[in-house]
């Protein structure tokens, strides 16, 4: 755990990579959610 904390907050490159990873996960989950909502059958 200390390795991950040092990787995230020890240098700006690690923090930037963590921001990129989490924003990518957020964007992909948002697109998946929009696809599920749009492809749902109309009531």
TrEMBL record:
The lineage of its organism: Bacteria, Pseudomonadati, Pseudomonadota, Gammaproteobacteria, Alteromonadales. InterPro entries: DUF3149 (IPR021494). It comes from the Bacteria. The chain crosses the membrane at residues 12-37. This is DUF3149 domain-containing protein. Keywords: Membrane, Transmembrane, Transmembrane helix.
